[in-house]
Input
Amino acid sequence: MSSIRQAVRELSNRGDVFSCPVRLDSVTTVSPGLLRVRVTGPGLADYHDPRPADAFKIAIPVHGGPVDFPGRRGDRLPIWNKGPRPLLRAFTVRGVAEDRSWLDFDAWWHGDAYAAGWLRRAPAGTEIGISGMRREFVPGAGVERHVLVGDACALPAVAAIVESLPGGTPVTAVLGVADAGDRAVLPERSGLDLHWTSSSAPAGSGTDLAAAVRRILPEPAGERLQVWIGAEAGVVREVRRYVLDRQLVVRDDLHASAYWKAGEDSTVRDEALLTAYQRLVADGASATDPDTRELAELGAS
Output
């Protein structure tokens, strides 16, 4: 009987990581809050065994030259050369061509989203970098229901997960968005029990999302759940603690990822996470283990 944590660990240990330049092919609006970005490039051929919600980073050049990529240490953490670094931002795969001729991702668009604004203004053919993939979702064997919890920043990942599961698979999704128009990015399918919350926060997060989880999942249902959480760090901690404390899910069937942190710039947060990773790895943790990622992002909660 496999779990999401076991499968993610096994996939990560295979070492399917790559970095390559890609070119912007198109940027289109798919909802009031989301842009669909398509990139192309021969280096995408190194993207093996695509999975829903695979996470990667794009590198936007900030000094007018070609994109610089970091080297990799033996533990796969990055080593940057001296000089100006590109702007890095994390996204999840929304779709990929079978022949790897293109890859799509969705960028959350709001007033202070620098990366989405840059992508929207950049002309077709502009070169950026891409580096990945970090595995975020695999359905565990024997799971009876999938529970997906996320704010607007997680909508692309949640949509990809829902599309990947066979029709009729029981899925409970608890999602928070500020603009009801963004709800259209979720595909309609049988077996999906969908609950929406709203928020005045730019990314549709907040205590209302955690409160909705407590209301919708008050007691263990007597079935094996697999829980996937993607949202602001404080909300992820709260929901993660709740589902574990209530014994709604066992830890190996839980994946919790902090997509952002309230009040903290993404670049500053990336630097802090890298420092946390380095400290944990120096203490003997594996850089590819989901436990290490959770400790770096969420602490010991």
